[in-house]
Design brief:
This protein is mainly alpha-helical and 446 residues long. It has three domains: 128 residues, MgtE N-terminal domain-like (MgtE N-terminal fold, Alpha Horseshoe), CATH 1.25.60; 102 residues, Roll (CBS-domain), CATH 3.10.580.10; 160 residues, Orthogonal Bundle (Tetracycline Repressor, domain 2). Helices cover 66% and strands 6% of the residues. It has a three-stranded mixed sheet with strand order 1-2-3. α14 links the parallel β4 and β5. The longest helix is centred in the C-terminal third of the chain and has 31 residues. The N and C termini lie far apart (59 Å).
């Protein structure tokens, strides 16, 4: 809330021509807070506000901005105005910004980099988008497995300033193959003559080509300060720091939440997003849901005669479809999370299915008993039996399908979040109605 208020006041000052007070306001904010205020402003005012920053401060603020906003400033101000800020970005952040820029501007910015920074950026850009290789930092500190603690400390003093982090240090052999990880605290407290290998732990690491989201979840869940990243021959090529991993996880969570709500995530703050951008984020999913909902209508049409004979059955349709959709979404969310943290993989599909069958059956039996008693007492025990059996069946099917859909999505290289609430709800609506009316015809003889 405070950020929004500051952004509003700053924008009003700029729109009113009070540039000196606006510059003073920005000067009094920490770099991270100033970046948040700029992101909440309208595009034109944001550009002016960024120009009000002193050069050295602009570099620090630029580093904290979202890549979309960074790209916008580059496109608006030109490469000359942001060249120094671009040069001061970490290689992984620089690669993320380059992904957002037109090719001509990106080439110009790369051309203006120092040779060392250009080489570091090229390492990261050599991996596919979405891979942990794109998000790692190639500027890391390492020690060799035959180093003593004393020589390792000297190496850290000599090269530590160039590394993104020195608190968790990969241990490699002389062919740069990862053999362990050692903490800075352990090295500092060790006898200088002790070998580093004596204090090293088995490494938790990631392959450069694997999903950045999967590696980030592993890093965050296990509290790893720096996750080593290796190539196909297990040679160390970079590290994914905990703060970068947290950014990846937050972005993935925002995307999953958006798609669970049947929309695409917005790239800019809501109030700064255009009507067209918001429409695009929502309308595609509405088309998908509208087309898929035709299945539900067709099912109702098929059983129209059954409804005419037993009108009371129509009263329970919202209840049953709601239970099915929620059960499927719960299962899908749980398995999607397990996939992201590498708790399950594609080969675990039979185990996932068996577990979800049992979970769905248990939940269905509990809810079905309540449905049987309540519906039976009010509408007759025949209707109660239909409701009870349907709830048991729907919960079992929805939980099983919901649990397997993320695995199927991963198998065909699709984001599991795409198969979350919208598709599962529609599937459960259609299959739930089929189950409901089939049981009603069998039990009630209609």
């Amino acid at each position: 809330m405070q950020t929004a208020v500051r952004a509003k006041h700053l924008q009003q000052a700029i729109d009113g021509g009070a540039l000196a007070p606006a510059a003073d306001t920005l000067a009094g904010l920490p770099a991270q807070d100033a970046a948040a205020v700029l992101e909440a402003m309208e595009r034109k005012s944001r550009t002016i506000a960024f120009r009000l920053l002193p050069k050295d401060r602009a570099v620090r603020v630029f580093d904290h901005l979202d890549p979309d906003v960074q790209a916008e400033l580059v496109a608006t101000l030109g490469t000359a105005d942001v060249a120094e800020a671009f040069d001061h970005l970490e290689p992984d952040d620089r690669a993320e910004l380059l992904d957002e820029l037109p090719a001509t501007i990106a080439k110009q910015l790369i051309r203006d980099l120092s040779p060392a920074q250009r080489e570091a950026t090229a390492v990261v850009l050599g991996f596919p988008r979405g891979s942990v290789g794109r998000r790692m930092s190639p500027e890391y500190m390492h020690v060799f497995n035959d180093d003593t603690a004393g020589s390792a400390i000297e190496r850290i003093k000599l090269r530590g300033r160039e590394a993104e982090t020195i608190y968790s240090i990969p241990v490699v052999d002389h062919e740069r193959r990862l053999v362990g990880v050692v903490g800075l605290r352990d090295i500092l407290l060790a006898d200088p003559a002790d070998p580093v290998a004596a204090y090293a732990n088995a490494p938790i690491f990631a392959q450069a080509g694997e999903s950045a989201e999967s590696a980030a979840w592993r890093c965050v869940d296990r509290g790893v300060l720096a996750l080593p990243v290796v190539d196909s021959e297990d040679r160390l090529i970079g590290v994914l720091t905990l703060d970068d991993a947290a950014e990846v996880v937050d972005a993935a969570r925002d995307e999953d939440e958006a798609r669970a709500g049947a929309r695409e995530p917005l790239k800019t703050p809501y109030l700064q997003s255009s009507t067209l951008a918001i429409t695009r984020a929502r309308v595609v999913w509405l088309f998908v849901l509208a087309v898929s909902a035709i299945l539900t209508v067709n099912v109702l049409e098929i059983f129209e005669g059954t409804l005419e004979q037993k009108v009371a059955l129509a009263l329970f349709i919202p209840l049953l479809t709601g239970i099915g959709g929620n059960t499927g979404s719960q299962a899908a969310t749980t398995v999607t999370r397990a996939l992201a943290t590498d708790e399950v993989e594609g080969s675990d599909a039979p185990r996932v299915a068996f577990k979800e069958v049992r979970v769905g059956l248990t939940m269905g039996a509990s809810l079905g008993l309540v449905g049987f008693v309540v519906a039976g007492a009010i509408y007759g025990w025949g209707i109660g039996t239909v409701i009870g059996l349907t709830i048991v069946s729907v919960c079992t099917v929805a939980a099983t399908v919901g649990g397997l859909m993320p695995l199927a999505a991963r198998a065909i290289k699709v984001d599991p979040a795409v198969f979350s609430t919208p598709f599962i709800s529609t599937f459960c609506d259609a299959t739930g109605l089929l189950i409901y009316f089939s049981i009603a015809k069998a039990v009630l003889g209609i």
